[in-house]
Each structure stands twice: as structure tokens, then as C-alpha cells.
Queue: 3 jobs
Job 1
Amino acid sequence: MMNALGNSKDTKPRGHSSRAVWFLIRLIRLTVFGAVMCFAGATLPAGDAAGKAQTQESICTKTAEAAQRACRFEAEDEALIALARCYNLTDSAARAKCEQDAAAARREHLDLCDEQFGERADLCEELGEAAYDPQIDPAGFVNPLEIGKTVTPNPWYPLVPGTTRIYKGNGATVTFSITRETREILGVTCITVRDVVEKGGETIEDTKDWFAQDLSGNVWYFGEIAQNFEDGELANIDGSWTAGVDGAKPGIIMKAAPRVGDFYRQEFSLGVAEDAAEVLNLRGPASVPAASCNDCLITEDFTPIEPGAVTHKYYKPGVGPILEVKPDTGARVELVEIKTVPAALTIADLFPNFGEQGERVNLTISGSGFTPQSRVSLSGSGVRVFTQYVSGARLNASVLIAENAFTTSRDLIVSNPDGSATKANAFSIRQ
């Protein structure tokens, strides 16, 4: 006879003999796995020639093959666990149904493994066979809190802190908020983006993404923590990854100068996050409630983990992503609103906090909400102040104190075009 998983099985009652067969099957599988791993180890180049040999081999295809083998082992393991649970059902009809379901799940899982391999192999043809190992130099990245101030944003993916984009589609609302929080990953200071999906008044996903823009204007994706909810309870964190952990590597979410036909990895954590994209058009039309364009960048986004799942994304210059379309169904997710919340203008401290009559004093002012248009002043007469913008959290100021300026405490004022902040009695003039 053949059991539900397609393996030979005799008709004797289950007992010590059947357990022995099961252990023998497991032993054979583990032995084969060990042989595969030993063969893989034997083919690894050693010494100084390792790098050269590595570049001459089909690394991308070998990665796809290894991932396929791992997937198939996982399918077999899950099927055996499912079958073991079936054995413990005393109702024969329920046990038979359980074994049939286990066999169907096994076949489906194995088919998925093969489809994923096909997708990965296709991607290898586009990207080439070289190992994917981007070299990250923290010195090659900008201060993310300066994007939109002293740093020009990537036009198709502007990460200006304080900006929130709201999307609607498929019965859900997606809120994409670029915060002023940062996190260091692989030595790079990344901006934190909070991505919340709500459906039927309930949060079904709450994700923190980490992005960084390099000096050339490319926007890199360094990871995410994805919280998935069911009935208001945290169900899992599937899809979470961080560059530098468990072999995960950053990818490019948007190039500085994309060209039609470009293929690139957006993330790389095997079996967890493998999104990639192709640039289809640089002057595509799109219209949604919050924006429209005739010069939208259009990409086709896909992932080998979900074979056949394709999304077309539209990016308006100066705005960012405005539309997602599923080409097979026509389902749309549209940008409906853009909000900008400037950082609160505050003065935390200044140094030094005094100066003498007839002296020039150079001040360093710390706080938040500073912009290149910020201006520093001191209350009262007998002083002149020249402002230098350093960052959103720091200003420098040069203070000229007249010889006859009154020796008293002065208020420090920082003014922006849309408001001002004052620190009372912050600076004193002495003889």
C-alpha cells in the first residue's frame, strides 16, 4: 500500500516496527542532507584563490538551488510532523482525512519550493551570477534628519521627516509616516518610517521600516519589524528582518537615477524578504485623489517568495509613491492625502551663556525644529547677532556686543518663518 504521503507502508498495526521504519526514513534523509552539505563544503574554495573562484561560479543560481533544497527539507519535516499528529487520532475516518490533508499540504509546499526556485533563477538571469554583497560605508550616507533641509531628497522617494502619506484601497487605509526617530544599522543612521494598515477600524499591520539615503541620492532599505495582528492580538512578526542579522543585507528601494530596464534587489533575507523591482517607464501617467502626473516613474515589484505576485508602482517626482496596481486584478491603492508636520521649535541650551562688553562671542545653540531660515536674536539693545544653520538640532551664532551695552540678562530668541521660541534670561552681558 501507499500511505497519504506517497511512501510505502505495510498493513501491520502501528507499533515498534513502524516506529523503527520512521526512524530509518529520518536517518536516511538526514544522511542525504549531510552528504549534500559535505559536498557543498568540499566545493568551497580555500585560501587566497577563494574570492577569484567565487566570482567565477554561478553564485546566484547556487543560492537559488540551496534555498530550494532547504525549502523541500522543510516541506518534508512539516509533513512528517503533520502525519505524526494524524497517528494520534483514534477515529479512523478522521485519521484518514488528516493523512490526506497532510499529503495535499506536502505537495503544495513542494510545488511552492519549485516555483520559488524558478522565480529566483529568472532573477539571476537579470541580475547576473555574482554574489549579492553590497559594501556599506557609513561615511557614504547622509544625516537623514537633514533630508529636505540641507540634503536634497530623492525625488521619487523623498524621506522628509514629518511627512505623512495616507493611502486607501482594497478596503484598507495605509498610513506611511516618516518620523524623526533614527536607528543605527551597520553603522548607518537610518530614518524610521511607521507603516500602519487598518481595515474595518482595526489595525492589521504595524511596521517600522528603516531607510537611509546615500550621498549619491540612492535610498537604501535596511530592514523592518512587522507586527501582524488578528482580532486585535499580535499574531506574528513574519517578514521582519534587519541588515547584518542572520545574513540579511540591505537593498535599494529607489535609485537616484533610474533607467528603464533596471533590475535591483530591494531587500535580501533568504526566505524572509526578497523583494526586487524592474523599472518599466520614466514618463507614465497616473491620477489619484492627492496627485496626478504624466511623468511618473513606474516599477514592477515582485518577490520570489510569492511566485506570480506582481505590483506596478507609480512614483510622482517630488511626492513619492502615489499608486499601486495589481495588474492581474486591477486592484488599486491610491494616495489620498499628504500631511506635513514641522518639528516643534524648541531651545534646549546654549554655550557659552555670557559675554563681555566690546567682545565678539560665538554661541552654539541646541534644540529642535531649526531650519536654514532660522534667525537668532537677543533681547534689548547694544547687540548684533549673525546666524549660521548647522542642522535641525543645532545653530551657531556670532554675537557682537557693544562697549556700552547694558550689563544685564537677555532673552534668547530663535525665529522661523512660521513661529519663534524664546529662552528667558539665557545670556548675560558682563563688564
Job 2
Amino acid sequence: MAVLQDAMESKYNIIKEKPMPQAKTMTLDEKLAISNKACLLLQAGDREGYSRLTRSIPMPPFLAKIMKEKMGVDYLINGGWNLSEAEAEFGQDWLSR
């Protein structure tokens, strides 16, 4: 139960601070910890919290590039996706190119 409480508290921190495309990159351990918390939220029926936490994990650059082409720049920016790894690989202006 304490793990679920921790996940719920993390959810509310994420809600207050919407992830931005220029967010920092994360280690694999950080990504896994967030993913585990997100899964707990989903199991508890909190789909919104799950979505917010998973979007805070950096999107792989190849996927960000495909989503930019298929869904558009606005979708990526307005969706609150963490695009830090794509920025590191493609440059900070990659969304405007």
C-alpha cells in the first residue's frame, strides 16, 4: 500500500508540473522507476495519472521523429511528451525543421 501511496503522490507532482519537451534525460533506472509507478496507477484505475507519468519518460528519438511526421509538431508539444533525447540527437531546433 505504501508503494501505491508513493505512486499517487508522484502523480500529483507530475500534474502540477507538466513535462516539457526540453526536460532532462533520465537513466534507465529512473525510467524504470517511473514506469513501475505508472503501472501501479493504472492498476488502481488512474489512467490519467498513468498517461502523465509515462509521458514524462523521454521518448526514443526514432519514435519522436516518426510521431513528428505522422502526428505533427503540435501533437508532440501539446501532448507534454518528454523529447529531451530527441533534442540531444537531432538538435534543439529539430521540431521547427
Job 3
Amino acid sequence: MTNEDILLIAGPQGRDEELVAAAAAHHPQRVTVLIEADDPNWGWSERRIASTRRDRLAALLTSVETATGATVVGLVGDPAALTLGGFDAIVGSSTYLRSAA
């Protein structure tokens, strides 16, 4: 299956390898990686949790790009704030998979 533009929603840690494999199965051209978190300061805060989120996002971006060859962008935030209809496929959180259908 080929889906040009996909959203990968990363919830709790521990499933990242599975999510990357699921994204690769779509053979995407573009991937948006979203780490679910309510943390508007994640990009600059020196708190440990913000640093951990940045490190996780960097690892996911690298893994997805390596596995798919796609253009990859990433952010941390609430999936409800995104227009989910703009993606050909959504990989990750089952809550948003149901709401996008």
C-alpha cells in the first residue's frame, strides 16, 4: 500500500519500533511525527521531561527517515489540534484512528 502523506502519532514510549515499521509499510513520501503531550515549552525548556521528549522526537525522526526515505517533520502536542483529514493515513493512537475515519 502507498500513502503519500501520513501522520505517525507516538503515545507512550515503548512502541516506537513498531510505529516506525507500520509507517514504513505505507511507503510514504512525507511523514509528520507527533508525540502526544501537553507541553508547549517542549522545544526550549530545560526540564528533564522536555529534554526527553526532544531526544525521543529526534530518534523517531531519524528512524522514520531511514526506514521510509520520506521527508519527515515532527512536533510535540495534541493531535486534536491538527486537521487529521489532510493525511492519507494515520499510524498510532487508536483514538485518533477512529476519529479520522
